[in-house]
Amino acid sequence: MEAGIHELTAGYALDALDPDERRAYEAHLAGCERCQQELASFWESTEALAVAASGPAPSPALRERILADVRTEPPQNVVPLESRRRRTVPVLAAVAAVAAVVALALGTWATSMSSDLDETRDALARERAAAAIVADPTSRTVEMAPGAGRLVVGVDGQAALVLPDLGEAPAGKTYQAWVIEDGNPISAGTFPGEYGTDVVLLDGDVAEGEVVAVTLEKAGGAKTPSLPPVVESDPV
Amino acid sequence: MRRHHAHLSDEALVALVARGDEDALAELYDRVGRVAYGLALRVLRDERHAEDAVQEAFLQVWRSAATFRAERAKASTWILTLVHRRAVDLVRREERRQADPLTDDSAAGVGREETDEAAWLRFERERVQAALKQLPDVQREALELAYYGGFSQSELAERLGVPLGTIKSRMFAGLARLRELLDDSTQEGSWKPEFTS
Predict the structure, then answer these.
(1) In a domain, B141, yes or no
(2) Is the whole model's pTM more than 0.90, yes or no?
(3) Same structural domain for residues B124 and B89?
């Protein structure tokens, strides 16, 4: 049976299993690293098959329908970035089972970015790490002021900033994040700022009672923050 | 119009979606929606049904983004997997399956004023189609009937009059070979445009 179930990977990637086989395979997949890796590899091929089928763009009305759906969705289905959260929050109320299984199965492979520069790869890795903290419903969310920014702190103290509308730093300048511990600021890295929302991974951990601030500094960053900060968090 | 989240990776967008950011979902749709719709249309052969499948899949993305392993996975694959699953479930329910061979004129609707992204998609599509043509006929047939036609392995075995084990190994070999061919053609130096220009 074990050997038999491994052979279902290609059929699963193509959605070509019968319903009972699909269920059996998904149950097996959760604990089988070999199948997870093989499936991830096969999914690269099926994604290519999807691209090969591409044709005319969908009607603009479809985009509107999807966004309208989302707006009417009951809010308990997502963990909003709005409010302060304790370390333990209930598991998401309504998680689509299929999506969960698929997401789990996708787990074990890193996208290959062979042609990218190391710098780009490093930036992407940092953004992914920040994304993981932000996506984790057990992370705490702390407000930043002024504006609608948030500091998101993972259970292990790793933290990310989500800053809408900070904007690009002026020429010759950079944003710099600081973790302030008992009034003592420690640099948590620099970032250029973007049009739109910044998702920034902080260097170092953030602990209970500490504050995170962002200042505008000369390109390359500063040893001590220039006051006043552009945004500052409540104490964690 | 500048897109508010245009600089973020797909994975960061999924993380924001998990926190209820509608703009992030809109940006994901803008990136993946066209391929998603083409795929659903290919399977379902009906614009209305294809739109429904894409709509339902994006609602699933909205609901379950927090379960996605953002640090290790590719978001587009996840979304397309949800779209395909939905389309196949619909097509099996409605018994509306067909499986014509893939034709090159599926791009007919690509506009005259082609955007960089549409050009990139066309380039990628041609690259994959060229790779598909290099597969042995029986492997290509197994992949196309399953993925575009929505046939299960056991249905295919019956339809083609070959043992189930043969179908399984054709699918396995076909997917593995396709991936190799695509890796090779990437290394031969495909271009990838900068969308920011």
Answers:
(1) yes
(2) no
(3) no
Q: What is the identity of the amino acid at A81?
A: L
Torsion of CA A117, A120, A125, A130, to 10 degrees: 180
Say if B159 is an interface residue toward chain A (CB within 8 Å): no
Residues B36 and B85 occupy one common structural domain: yes
Sheet with A184-191: list strands edge to edge: A184-191, A173-181, A211-218, A231-233, A140-145, A150-153, A159-163, A198-201
ipTM of predicted complex: 0.86
In a domain, B101, yes or no: no
CB A44, CB A13: distance < 8 Å: no
CATH of the domain at B125: 1.10.10.10
Contact pairs from chain A to chain B, CB under 8 Å: 309
What number of residues does chain B have?
A: 197
Q: How many CA atoms lie within 13 A of B88 on its CB side?
A: 26
Contact in structure between A97 and B68 (CB atoms under 8 Å): no
What is the token pair recorded at A235? 């104490």
Return the beta strands (E) in chain B as ranges.
none
Q: What is the pLDDT of residues B24-61, one digit of tens each?
A: 999 999 999 999 999 999 999 999 999 999 999 999 99
Q: Which of A48, A100, A115 sits opposite B64 (nearest CB)?
A: A100
Distance CA B23, CA A71 (A): 11
Token look-up 């005259």 returns B112
- Assess if residue B107 is contained within a domain: no
* Selected residues 54-73 of chain B with any CB under 8 Å from a CB in chain A: 54-55, 58-73
In a domain, B196, yes or no: no
Query: CA-to-CA distance for A115 and A122, rounded, in angstroms?
Result: 13
Q: Which domain holds residue B133?
A: 113-189
